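Case study B.
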Amino acid sequence: MTTSTRQTTTPHPGTDVAMPDAAAPQASEPRSTEQLTDLGQGLRAATGGRYGPVRDLARASVPAEVMVRDASLDMAGARAWTNEALRSLVRYGMAGSGFPTTVGGLDDVGRSCVDFEMTAHGDLSLTVKSGVHFGLYGGAVTALGNEWHHETFLRPNLALEQIGCYAMTEFGHGSDVASLQTTHTYDPETDEIVVHSPTPSSTKTYIGAAAQDAHVAAVYGQLHVGEESHGVHVVVVPIRDADGNPLPGVTLGDNGAKGGLAGVDNGTITFDHVRVPRAHLLNRFGGIDDEGRYVSDIDSDNKRFFTMLGTLVRGRICVAAGAATASRKALSIATRYALRRRQFSAPGHDGDVVLMDYLAHQRKLIPAIATAYAHTFAVNEVVERLQELHEMPEKDQVAQRELETRAAGLKAVITRFGNDTIQTCREACGGAGYLAENGLTVLRGDADVFATFEGDNTVLLQLVAKGLLSGYKEMWGDLDMRGMVQFAARTFGGQFVEATAARPLIERLRTAAARKGEGETLLDRGWQLAMFADRERHVLETLATRLRRRADDQDSFEAFNSAQDHVLLAARTHMDRVVLEAFVAGIEECEDEQVREVLDRLCTLHALTSIDADSGWFQAHNRMSAGRAKAVVAQINELCAELRPQVLDLVEGLGIPETWLNSQMLQDDTSARWTPGADV
Amino acid sequence: MTTSTRQTTTPHPGTDVAMPDAAAPQASEPRSTEQLTDLGQGLRAATGGRYGPVRDLARASVPAEVMVRDASLDMAGARAWTNEALRSLVRYGMAGSGFPTTVGGLDDVGRSCVDFEMTAHGDLSLTVKSGVHFGLYGGAVTALGNEWHHETFLRPNLALEQIGCYAMTEFGHGSDVASLQTTHTYDPETDEIVVHSPTPSSTKTYIGAAAQDAHVAAVYGQLHVGEESHGVHVVVVPIRDADGNPLPGVTLGDNGAKGGLAGVDNGTITFDHVRVPRAHLLNRFGGIDDEGRYVSDIDSDNKRFFTMLGTLVRGRICVAAGAATASRKALSIATRYALRRRQFSAPGHDGDVVLMDYLAHQRKLIPAIATAYAHTFAVNEVVERLQELHEMPEKDQVAQRELETRAAGLKAVITRFGNDTIQTCREACGGAGYLAENGLTVLRGDADVFATFEGDNTVLLQLVAKGLLSGYKEMWGDLDMRGMVQFAARTFGGQFVEATAARPLIERLRTAAARKGEGETLLDRGWQLAMFADRERHVLETLATRLRRRADDQDSFEAFNSAQDHVLLAARTHMDRVVLEAFVAGIEECEDEQVREVLDRLCTLHALTSIDADSGWFQAHNRMSAGRAKAVVAQINELCAELRPQVLDLVEGLGIPETWLNSQMLQDDTSARWTPGADV
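Model:
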């Protein structure tokens, strides 16, 4: 069952944005002095959500030097810069927000996502390094450990005295976490756990901070107690001494240069019977008692595994937030450039034409800006929902599953959009876009990894489909083919058509539109919402029918595989609806009429662009006539023209301070190089 | 009027592939020993074309060390490696093929494109550096100079004693070449030309080899003789002495790190009244006589300008060839990985499932392989056509315009496909795909620039539309808005529906299919061809009508701009047809039945994938029913399943020697790291 997140949100700015005194920036710090237009400021306010004040504070207090890295630094220099910047994050209170208050945190997991997001406005190496250290390592200790673990491991983490890494992925298994091969074997003789890499393919790889900096690792492995195996558990294992030397039994490697993230030292870890005290097992959901027996409140190995994996939800939300920010940043750079750069004279026009005035350029950037706004609202919703569920005294399993599903789906669709959009922006800046000093190629290379880390996008979309088929009632694994086929047969209902956000409003709009059908204008929000919901319903119903027909097949791989494209389509159409409804709900909360009008236009542009992209489907399924399909394109062009005069406000509203854009071509002192007015 | 290139092709292998003795590789050189399957070998033979033996020779004789660069080299190391590799290219006869025979060349411009293409199988920095030196600089001297220029500048070029660069782009103007601001002013007192950068925005930028290595530059600028300006001309200007120091009046800068191409030293050049002898003006189309008067066989400044720009055609063909190769390489890496990498167990199956067996993975890679084959044939056609026109005693202006149009269009569509495909391949390899050592991120970063250099893709597609509207009868500038609107009114006929290649066959197939309409099977080549041709015809006719209606508008910018998306669509649909017809013509030349059958299947997969991508258009314009639109998707899945068993042969056929893939994860000695069979 889906629930509305908007309705249960209690905005409480002021109280929950206060930072610990120790972390507060000094009054003498340089502060950015952005001059925004009223509309730009209004758009920022409208997209800030519950954590708007946290975002405003970061923008106002953190100087660009902390946030942006010199693109010419080599790998060693970038790694050093990142470590230094990590210290600044602590100083500015942008670290450990999700930790328990007992160890200096704020117990605010939503805010920890916002901290991650704000670093992504600057440099993604810093984002990922801090995300690994505070979010993944610190988050695993927080969520899977007990108070002793918190006291022992989180305090030195927050003080940066002990750098942490998150050792899940192995050469042999990434997406398939259940099949990891590292072993955690309990030795009752010494009351220790022996951590071991039994095969070449069990070596941990791509582990951020493993190559150079990490002192300690949260290691995923199969727990063996006595004769029995209890599945994947996490053990905290020291891997380096204070001087940075590998500890006995630990072999560390460097993954070397990557497609980006030069400042993150990804590496490999191989364990040769490394012993740690039994207490190092993070035992919130399953541990070993003083008698050396395995104990857990959760009976089923499977359920325990998925409960532990559920803690991944924050990482995926963070990646979605980071990718959404990367898109906003790329669009900010390319749009600002398009407003300065001129090329080709036009008959009857003074001077060369500003790039932004070409229809083709508008079509490249303005619909993408609209979708970037949609993603901003969708991310806010899931970040706030994460914290709401965290604050609930009683855990709601279905709500938790729904959140996990949505986080997986948003991560997949937002990172896909991010990679495509950053590339579009880089190309829209011509040769200048290719120079590292202008920020776009670095951003593209850095953000690229989001497509495959914290869950491969193709795998994640399959999780979404499974969540939908089971009505969020089942625990989900990363890719359980038999499960997916069986859920379709057993449990699929029809609950998916409920609105995900601002439910009464959205249902009212949809119902009104349904009465008019194609008679409704393209601008009608109800018609747009109904199109998205109807497509999702149809795709999901036909998928369920198709899988159900094959539920008794001996070969469930073949049954699953033959419908895999349908599975992915179901997930995508669901996420399209979730994103659109988040946009609509976000507008509903906006009280500034001028801002609201602009957001309304952006929302329509986003919706029509999505409908146009899927025009083949809508027509093939008799959801849109040929005439209407053509009218959609004309309407998109018209909306671009309408939004063109406000495009600078729109990118101001995207929220990246200009000094954090780190793009040489936008600096005043060099713009004379190409401003035609200066030289003709 | 379009003409068939296939019909006039005379294959003459053996004679025209002989290399000068001095450049022949030594017998003692290490040679790659590729073991191909019969089908893989047959596919290579079928896609080799006129220059197949040149390609085979390069693959067989050039060792991987020459072709692939260590991904961990920093910028300085990469630049040094590239310079060293440049020497090897000369040694292996892969340089200067397009130069006149009088100076040691082969007078074979088609072959020079193939040399460029073959370097792209290895490292794109080497490709671009050699392309700038031999192709752009050497090509400008060859095409725009006289015998004295050839003797004086090409001999030291081929001997690598004088590194050349191509100084066209300025900060202020890239796409708009006619508006360049650098001045070439004739001084009759000293009989010299004064080369000058009069404004900050006239500084040359992004110039390959300018930052570090180039001794001499082909400089584009406005020629002034007496009181008159004669438009853009090219002057050869020494910029560095033999020790690498900038010459007096020349200021050189370094563009620094870029999105890729670490081995290419792009930089800036500013001229402060630099004097060169009058003889340094490349004067084939316009020069200064001994009396100091401007002389030219071409009366119109405009016509002369476009004739000179016509020499850009080879550069664009080379970029298309390079991008096509980059796609083939990425697909080779990702497919080979997908055949080794396993993830997730499947009920009832032994071991984890090979990635290539997932439908979603097949859909990512196999249709892209099919399109890569299509592009291979399309590139061959245009490369061979270039040489045919070069060999013709009488110049055919319309044929030349058509070639220029096609080169521009192929460059745009193939580089777009390249960037998308390399990214798909990188993501299909998960975390491993993100490591530089596995080759994909380096390739992606390097190939990225193809989208905007040698003509911005958006600008190039507009050239294509203009060529179509004018029936190739007009000279074309880079973006002439008034011209485009007026051509539509004046000259547009209907000649575009003629087949571009293998005309009788294609027209026969189309005609047969037209009689049956939707009754025809999706597999019918005639139906596919008719769909592409009909779409192009409709888009172009409606574009012409739309522009014609506004031909008298005062504001021709507005008239052009409001239809810009339509202009781009016209160009794309034309190029889609050109590419498909090249594929069909290529198959027609293949005599091996087994190979032909596979190519047929690939061609259908390519065609249906393209139709599916444009499904919205075909339905909105009543060219395809809803039922047929759905059937296309099912047929694509079926074709993927049919081609799955041959997918290794398919990538062998793409023609990149395995040792040139430069992908650590495909090396035998490291594959044990993750081959599940080795560790369970």
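The two ends of chain A are 64 Å apart (CA to CA). The remaining cases will be described in the next quarterly update.
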